[in-house]
Design goal:
heterodimer, A: about 400 residues, alpha/beta, 7-stranded mixed beta sheet, about 40% helix, about 15% strand, B: about 150 residues, Sufe protein. Chain: A, 5 helices
Amino acid sequence: MVYFDNAATTRVKEEVLEAMLPVFTDNFGNASSTYTTPGQRARKALSDARRTVAAALNAEEREIFFTGGGSESDNWAIKGYALKNKSKGNHIITTAVEHHAVLHTCEFLEKHGFEVTYLPVDEEGAVSAEQVRAAIRPDTLLVSVMFANNEIGTINPIAEIGAVCREKGVAFHTDAVQAVGAVPIDVKAMNIDMLSASGHKFHGPKGIGVLYIKKGLRLDNLIHGGAQENGRRAGTENIPGAVGLAKALSIAVETMEEKTAKLTAMRDKIIDTILAEVPYVRLNGPRENRLPNNVSICFRYIEGESLLLSLDMKGFVVSSGSACTSGSLDPSHVLLAIGLPHEIAHGSMRVSLSGENTMEEVDAFLAELPPIVRRLREMSPLFEGVEK
Amino acid sequence: MYSEKVMEHFANPRNVGEIEDANAVGTVGNAKCGDIMKMYMKIEDGVIKDVKFKTFGCGAAIATSSMATELVKGKTIEEALELTNKAVIEALDGLPPAKIHCSVLAEDAIKAAIVDYYKRQGLEPPAGLCSGDCDACAHGHDHVME
């Protein structure tokens, strides 16, 4: 099987698993316990992990909080900040193409009296700092803009948006779940106040995430209970998860340069070959300012799920933003937001690579894809007459 | 998520294509919703001598089209009009709940082609038959939804 769905989740690296295993069996203590050996070792493992994550983001150790994953981080950042700071205003700015962990959280807050502006994106899926500036009102308390889009790979001008938010005195959160470990991130230089990350997107384990909270920023807690995570996120710490996330992140950051070169070469070969060899296709998202591992293409006259199933039968795992894969009647909100009509959005395919993929796999994929597209088009009533 | 039978009909769909001298053609669904089925039939002496389909849609849409053509091929018009989406689902060893509408579409496509046949013959189609031009993603007809 060739796995091209790394934006959905990734394989845990052997080194990551090896780093985690002793924490399950030998250093299994509760970090909150006062007795010495097991508890101390657990505390040390947790604080080492926190320091590693902080270093990767140019943050401080006390600004890193472990959570149950990217969705929890998004929920905590947005609900926690909005509820704690509602005396400053009740207006939140986000974008139309956020992950549902952000969109549905904002919709929840709308039901509780907050007002949310969903910024439209350009045809490549990006928002500009000027759009954010124009949308900021006196009662705006929070801006949440994703670092990079999970479906079409668009990287937003985060440093510029951060600068606008800083200038206007508005808190800035970014859902960086697809970007952490993939592109350089410096929370200080980029003026990021809160940042969400998820371990399983960069070869770490599932069920562990990070929320960076700039020191001094006040948030309500989301998970109430014990005094873990400096009293801000209750629940016995998932230390194996934290250790695994930190190990995976340190590998991702150390190898970023060579990995980016490799991924970009594979990504561009897929894009260039499909655009050259398959008619009636469009690339979604930009050529530049694009995640190095993301390919998103719409094939006209065919539907994404049947393409995905056909590729699966040949041993290639990809994903699609078609309605049939989303479980609703509508195709992906991201594809609609960049202006695609429904019938074209239904024919989308996302390939998301990892450093573990090879050019041989890419070549094998590119050999199988065009005949599959041709076969499905020959079966499609929409294609009738197109080539006559 | 799909049964082996669905995957088999998706991988090797029966009766794909067009019939040049078809005397019954029906199209249902719309591209906005992500599925369109077009049925071609050659009807002689009240019997469906040949049937072919073209489908834009998901795996279930293709498999239900394929199965529906198999179930009506060689049958009389009256027999074909008794085809239900439930029979298509059963013949495919089941469909996931989110894909039931594909079987409804397949039933409708067969009926739309037969309505077209009646019209071409200058006959009044039997009452209550869907001609396929209802422009809704989720059909409101009285079909078995289970």
